[in-house]
Amino acid sequence: MSPPSRRQVLGWGLAGGAMTAAGAAGLLWGTGPRGGPGGGSGGTGGGDWGEPEVLTSAGGVLDLDLEAAPAAVGIDGRTAHVWAFNGTVPGPTLELSPGDTLRVRMTNGLGAPTNLHVHGLHVSPAGAGDNPFVTIEPGGTHDYEFVLPPDHPPGTYWYHPHHHGTVAEQLAAGLYGAIVVREAAPPPVSRERVLVVSDLALTAAGELAEPSVMERMMGREGSLVLVNGRRRPRLAAAPGERERWRIINACPSRFLRLGLDGQSVRLLARDLGRLHQPVEAGTVELAPGNRVDLLVEAAEGTSTLVASPVDRGAMPGMMGGRRPGGTGPVDLLTLEVTGGRAPALADVPAGPEPQDLRGVEVARRRTLDFAMGGMGGAMMRGDGSMMSFTVNGREFDAGRTDVDPAFGDVEEWTLVNSSPMDHPVHLHVWPMQVVSGGGGDDGAGDEPRWADVVTVPALGRVTVRVAFEGIAGRTVLHCHILDHEDLGMMATVEVR
Ligand SMILES: [Cu+2]
């Protein structure tokens, strides 16, 4: 991978704190002398590598209790008061196979409504399924049942709350976890790791910090960027080993442009889509919600996984020149490769030929316009209430049906962004194939490019095709800058 342009030493609070009222007042956790193990001068960060508990299906079923509740967790040697699934950040990793049934009895231990979404899974959105219209009141429970079809694409997915109006807040508080759908014949690797990347904004006392109105409109970015709830963990490998990293961007708004200096890295999969052949990866970019599977061929030395800043646009005249993602590179983890050389592994065989909708007949074409209203400078009010976030000019209304594909049809959608900020668009249940626009050349050439979050650049457009097959029902599409979604940039989709 290409090296990061430069390296900065980041005090956690100082990085993003400049954009918050709390940060300006010096109240963010980390604005004082850096503490905790490894947090001192030139430290490589606190804590060693770790992953959440893994819960694996047996006999075709994974059955678990999941409670969303306040929790005190240790981060970098200190105590942070967050919200967590089953007391850990991230929550447990759920390991499934195609055809499995996932049953989750979810309990709401928060003081606010919540629910659960299984991001990327091709499962029914009806009833007890992946239903974004469910509300679990405080103290309540809901029994979810997600039935994966036998031909469900293997891959890296994740879960998080999806209750409209509080999604960004609940993710920013610590509520997310990984889902891995196993392959029958995985590529040969020395080991596999799950890397859930998230960000947190904490006060000096370790409490969750409130975002400003401006931060919500830009999409909040916590200054403390974590991998599996740890700051700059260290992990070890031997030369010649091959690792598979399943990386999930669980940040509410932060884009990740990832580079791993000094190592040979190949892109194996994006979102649900295993590439037919892995390709050499320079930097790879993940919008919020995106995943990548990387193959790392370990070479002796010490390397750092760095998230470089991504310019995702700005609102003119409203940010005082500050732009989201402009806080400098962030070191995510350190890989130390030492010791005797591992025996060589077999080559990675080609994956299945991906489906390609480019040659098929399109039943219907639509244009979906993602807009931020009230942009005319003077119209801006201090409370942000003049700013509307819309799809085709309308804010989200759960009772209205916006997009109504017929079951079995292939549709072509032109996703238009008429605003000056990027919007990563996520469609639940049915994956999208990018057929034009979208940039982000990942080296896979003309190969079909599948994703469940597609970034539509500021003032740009992207064309996708979607096959509404396998599953019918009513769900949503929305911007995965989750503050934008909460502010209205979401539409209903009903497939009949
Ligand atoms: Cu957006």
Explain how this protein is built.
It is a single chain. Among the domains are: 188-337, Cupredoxins -  blue copper proteins (Immunoglobulin-like, Sandwich); 364-495, Immunoglobulin-like. Helices cover 5% and strands 38% of the residues. The protein has helices at 12-17, 21-24, 167-172, 213-218, 482-486; strands spanning 54-56, 61-75, 78-85, 93-96, 101-108, 117-119, 141-147, 155-160, 177-181, 191-200, 224-227, 234-237, 242-249, 256-260, 264-270, 273-280, 284-286, 291-297, 301-308, 330-337, 364-372, 389-391, 410-417, 423-427, 432-436, 449-451, 453-456, 461-467, 473-479, 490-495. The chain has a six-stranded mixed sheet with strand order 11-10-13-18-15-16. Strand 15 and strand 16 (273-280) form a beta hairpin. Residues 423, 479, 481, 484, 489 line the site of copper (II) ion. Copper (II) ion (CU) is lined by residues 423, 479, 481, 484, 489.
In short:
With 496 residues, the chain is mainly beta.
Supply the key terms.
5% helix; 6-stranded mixed β-sheet; Immunoglobulin-like; binds copper (II) ion; 5 helices; 496 residues; mainly beta
**CATH architecture descriptor text of the domain at 188-337:** Sandwich
The rounded distance between the terminal residues' Cα atoms is 45 Å
Beta-strand segment tally: 30
- Main pleated sheet: 6 strands, mixed
Radius of gyration: 21 Å
**Overall shape:** globular
Strand content: 35-45%
CATH class of the domain at 188-337: Mainly Beta
Strand order of the largest sheet: 11-10-13-18-15-16
Protein topology:
Elements: H1 12-17, H2 21-24, E1 54-56, E2 61-75, E3 78-85, E4 93-96, E5 101-108, E6 117-119, E7 141-147, E8 155-160, H3 167-172, E9 177-181, E10 191-200, H4 213-218, E11 224-227, E12 234-237, E13 242-249, E14 256-260, E15 264-270, E16 273-280, E17 284-286, E18 291-297, E19 301-308, E20 330-337, E21 364-372, E22 389-391, E23 410-417, E24 423-427, E25 432-436, E26 449-451, E27 453-456, E28 461-467, E29 473-479, H5 482-486, E30 490-495
Parallel strand pairs: 1-4, 2-5, 4-9, 10-13, 12-20, 21-23
Antiparallel strand pairs: 2-3, 5-7, 6-8, 8-9, 10-11, 13-18, 14-17, 14-19, 15-16, 15-18, 19-20, 21-22, 23-28, 24-27, 24-29, 25-26, 25-28, 29-30
